[in-house]
Design a protein that fits this description.
This protein has helices at residues 17-26, 44-52, 66-71, 89-92, 111-119, 133-140, 150-158, 193-205, 213-221, 225-229, 244-258; strands spanning 13-14, 34-38, 55-59, 77-80, 100-105, 124-132, 162-167, 172-173, 180-186. The strands form 2 sheets. The protein has a 7-stranded mixed β-sheet with strand order 4-3-2-5-6-9-7, with helices on both faces. A two-stranded antiparallel sheet has the order 1-8. It is elongated. By secondary structure, it is an alpha/beta fold. Strand 5, helix 5 (111-119) and strand 6 form a beta-alpha-beta unit. The longest helix has 15 residues, at 244-258. The protein contains 11 helices and 9 strands. It binds S-adenosyl-L-homocysteine. S-adenosyl-L-homocysteine (SAH) is lined by residues 9-14, 38-41, 44-45, 59-62, 83-85, 105, 107, 110.
Length: 268
């Protein structure tokens, strides 16, 4: 079979067998685990996961890969040829009785939306994904660091993300332009409604990184500064100076002082 790689789907397949095994080690997949894989490609990682896990549910957007994936005839594999970003989370999770681990070598342009989507799950146990090196650095960055932003805060609300290994571009076929790394996040905090508000607030605070939190909030919430300045919180800092814990405090203060009717209007 001849296959033409499609750039529009971010197709960079892993060509290194040791790396496939290492990804499963990084995710600590064991025989009790149910695993969700997004972007199965030709199934290199899918096959390795299926050796270690109880069950693998894999999504692939490109129907041309169907013959490759079906030929593997893996007994513990459920395949979906669908866009995992578009499919509602609740539908994706119908395949899992209990919790599941997300493991993926993702196309880089869907990394952030996909992370935000799965952070909204109440069933997910951990996320172990290949990301562009710079995105990995953003995910693990601590407050005060130039890479610290909404992706860092939102991921670190749930646990302590770690860069498990660096991955050079040479292990992919075709080779991407950038280096990568494997990041793992164990989900220790469960998603609830307040997290949704927190995420929106964090995005507003980071809207203009050079502006103070006060200015970003005034603009983002469409409120005047004097009202917001009444909050017992130092709002003259920039968002990158606030720890995850401080964002949580700020969200509660906004909610309590400014009333429940304060809606965060912008979905960015
Ligand atoms: N896991 C394979 C392939 C990685 S390349 C390996 O490591 O070798 C990323 C794969 O994700 C491609 O096959 C691409 O077609 C698929 N993909 C891209 N966007 C997707 C989406 N929204 N939903 C599901 N699969 C997607």
């Amino acid at each position: 079979m001849k296959f033409n790689f499609k750039k529009k789907f971010g197709q960079n397949f892993i060509s290194d067998k040791n790396l496939l095994k290492s990804i499963c080690d990084d995710a600590e997949i064991c025989s009790e685990d149910e695993v969700l894989e997004i972007g199965a490609g030709m199934g290199a990682l899918t096959k390795e996961i299926s050796v270690h896990a109880k069950k693998v549910v894999a999504y692939e957007i490109d129907e041309e890969l169907k013959p490759y994936l079906q030929l593997m005839e893996l007994k513990n594999l459920i395949l979906h040829f669908e866009d995992a970003l578009k499919k509602p989370l609740s539908d994706i999770e119908k395949d899992f009785e209990n919790g599941y681990k997300l493991v993926a070598n993702l196309p880089y342009y869907i990394t952030s939306p996909l992370i935000f989507k799965f952070l909204q799950s109440t069933k997910i146990q951990s996320i172990t994904i290949m990301v562009q090196k710079e995105v990995g650095e953003r995910i693990v960055a601590k407050c005060g660091n130039k890479n610290y932003g909404s992706l860092s805060v939102c991921c670190q609300y749930f646990g302590q993300p770690k860069i498990m290994r660096k991955v050079p571009k040479t292990v992919f076929n075709p080779q991407p332009d950038v280096d990568s790394c494997i990041v793992r996040l164990d989900i220790e905090n469960k998603f609830d409604e307040s997290v949704d508000k927190l995420f929106k607030l964090v995005r507003i605070c980071f809207k203009s990184r050079r502006k103070t939190v006060l200015n970003n909030l005034a603009e983002g919430l469409n409120l005047n500064k004097t009202t917001i300045a009444k909050l017992p919180f130092d709002l003259n800092q920039r968002a990158e100076q606030l720890s995850v814990q401080q964002f949580i405090v700020l969200e509660k203060l906004l909610h309590n002082y400014l009333g429940q009717d304060v809606k965060v209007p912008i979905e960015q």
